[in-house]
Design goal:
With 395 residues, the protein is α/β, with parallel strands linked by helices. It contains 14 helices and 14 strands. 38% of the residues lie in helices and 22% in strands. Bound molecules: adenosine-5'-diphosphate, acetylphosphate (UVW) and magnesium ion (MG). It is found in: Cytoplasm.
Length: 395
């Protein structure tokens, strides 16, 4: 038996789980959320207790330090050397990484260099890798890439209609993200539907602070909504999703912004729900605002739902019909109102929610018996997939 920690740095959160492997027993787990927002929340579940602290956590480096401190101060471990394996989610693997790898100095450098393909994520992922490699020089450290599951996409999905040189010389193509999550929930959905993944056409909707949808045919990703970077696709907590590129020079001229990176930063960090509501990137705040009659929060919600509906429509076309739509991640797992709003507008396609199943803690099929396209909620478990890959690469 050995202890393995899986670390999942998202754009607004850091999730971790400490496992006894190979038994896959969860010893402790933690969630640090609202990173970069006021009143960040850190919670650790261990030994039947939940320890919650609320304070401002400005970035992922601070979050990693809190996690390391909690492991010792809550007596989850006596010595760091008990941890023999660490697994790190890495969002962008580019064309370099098609599966999980053992992290060496060179691999760590390559991950940092891929930050152009995931500016909100790879630096956070690298912060975790750096901190744990320094703390545990003798442990096995593994990188698990969000992009790996999407390497099965055909050129018709991953190429952009730009001059060939941009692909040939600069690898400009769609890479996608959230692959570990899309893979995990699609496999779980197949279990719920009582079929092999090879027999199914699925649309998985990972709706968290980052949002992406994937068309999965026979267990393989054939298209996904995120693109060259996780800025593309549907609207998100702070990201625009797809935009007409002509807006970029237009806004630069109008506002006097001279550095294009400044504008890309605004599209990544100050847009989406945050940009339209003018108040928050967090769906819980948006739902509250909407209930209180806040017009901007209502518009933010409506746009968010509309963009997701349109991608589900696209993927029904890409797959030429689907067996099921699967909701997962922070919003997809927890918000019945969001799921209902999305599905209510897709009734023509044969999606129909059973309201008595669209509840807090929903897990499994939530559609009516008559629905032609099933609807499922599956809590994602990126950490478990990561821990399994650490185990595999430790052999
Ligand atoms: N009960 C809930 N109802 C609605 N939204 C929720 C609920 N719980 C969490 N969320 C939302 O989930 C989002 C964070 O999702 P998560 O998958 O944890 O993010 P990340 O992309 O950082 O991994 C936030 O917008 C948050 O408001
Ligand atoms: C790729 C991405 O957007 O990840 P997250 O949803 O964890 O921010
Ligand atoms: Mg996430």
């Amino acid at each position: 038996m050995s202890k393995t920690i899986a670390i999942n740095a998202g754009s607004s959160s850091l999730k971790w789980q400490l496992y006894e492997m190979p038994a896959e027993t969860v010893i402790a787990k933690g969630l640090i959320e609202r990173i970069g927002l006021p009143e960040s929340v850190s919670s650790v579940s261990f030994d039947g207790d939940k320890h919650v602290t609320v304070k401002d956590i400005h970035n992922h480096t601070e979050a990693v330090a809190i996690l390391m401190n909690d492991l010792k101060s809550l007596a989850i471990i006596d010595h760091f050397s008990e941890i023999t394996g660490t697994g790190h989610r890495v969002v962008a693997g580019g064309e370099l990484f098609k599966s999980s790898v053992l992290i060496t100095d060179e691999i760590a450098k390559q991950i940092e260099n891929l930050a152009e393909l995931a500016p909100l994520h790879n630096p956070a992922n690298a912060a975790g890798i750096h901190a744990f490699r320094a703390l545990l020089p003798n442990a096995t450290h593994v990188a698990v890439f969000d992009t790996a599951f999407h390497t099965t996409m055909p050129p018709v999905a991953y190429r952009y209609p730009v001059p060939n040189d941009y692909y040939d010389k600069y690898a400009v193509r769609k890479y996608g993200a959230h692959g570990t999550s899309h893979m995990y929930v699609s496999q779980k959905a197949a279990e719920y539907l009582g079929k092999a993944p090879e027999e199914l056409k699925l649309i998985t909707a990972h709706i968290g602070n980052g949002v992406s949808l994937t068309a999965i045919d026979g267990g393989k990703s054939v298209d996904t909504s995120m693109g060259f970077t996780p800025l593309a696709g549907v609207m998100m907590g702070t990201r625009t999703g797809d935009l007409d590129a002509s807006i970029i020079p237009y806004i630069m001229v109008k506002t006097g912004i001279t550095d294009v990176n400044e504008l890309i930063d605004i599209f990544n960090k100050k847009s989406g729900l945050a940009g339209i509501s003018g108040s928050s990137s967090d769906m819980r705040d948006i739902l509250k605002g909407r209930e209180e009659g806040d017009e901007k929060a209502t518009l933010a919600f409506d746009l968010f739902i509309n963009r997701i509906q349109k991608y589900i429509g696209q993927y029904l076309a890409v797959l030429n019909g689907a067996d099921a739509v699967v909701f997962t991640a922070g919003i997809g797992e927890n918000s019945g109102p969001v799921r209902k709003a999305i599905v209510d507008g897709l009734s023509w396609f044969g999606l129909d929610i059973d309201e008595s199943k669209n509840i807090v803690g929903a897990d499994g099929i939530i559609s009516t018996a008559a629905a032609k396209v099933k609807v499922l909620v599956i809590p994602t478990d990126e950490e478990l997939v990561i821990a399994r890959d650490v185990e595999k690469l430790s052999q």
